[in-house]
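Predict both folds.
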Amino acid sequence: NVMLVVQNILLTKMICKEHIGQGKQILVICDEEIHKKKIQDNDLVLDLTSSFYDGEFIKEEIIKLKLSKFYIIHAVGVKSVNFLLLNKLTNEKEIKKINNVPYVHIVLSS
């Protein structure tokens, strides 16, 4: 049922952390299911155990309200990447995968 899918998306919480690098705001979004794990595929590693990914659970609608203030968004996991796709902040071509875990690193403005 499409309505149930929409409701589930609106109720989804993701782990978010805000950083400031070189005076620019950075948002990191990570799915709860993969938080604190190392995702590896041969020489490629996404180390989600690092403090870079430590944040708090935030509902999608709250994240959506803050998106315009970020220069860079780094998202890891199916829910996090789909959130950016649904909000037209990325596209399929920009998404990469390590061991079938999608991630994307996007620059929104200068």
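Second protein follows, with its predicted structure tokens after the sequence.
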Amino acid sequence: LEVDEAARHLTYLRPGGMALVDAAQGLRPELDADIARLNLRVHCLPASQMALDLGAPAVANVILAGFAAGFAAMPFSFATLRQALQDGSGRNRDLNLAALDAGFRSVVSSQ
């Protein structure tokens, strides 16, 4: 989610849920009370900027998918996502794999 989308949708998450947000600086401070009340885990990654750095703004969601795969709470593994991209990405395979790897490395390097 982008910051504005996260702000609109945080209260729809179940208590104790997790949000992955495309943001470099985190969420707005006025959301802190809702985050605390719902006991939410919010993880931010500047996926749009990372996609621009890769030269392809369209892969921001692939970066977020790699980021998501780094969390045990997600119902899919990094290996499963990577295999799906290897099998089905066609001419953009290398770019998509680089984007997925970048998102996943962001989680691994922060733990």
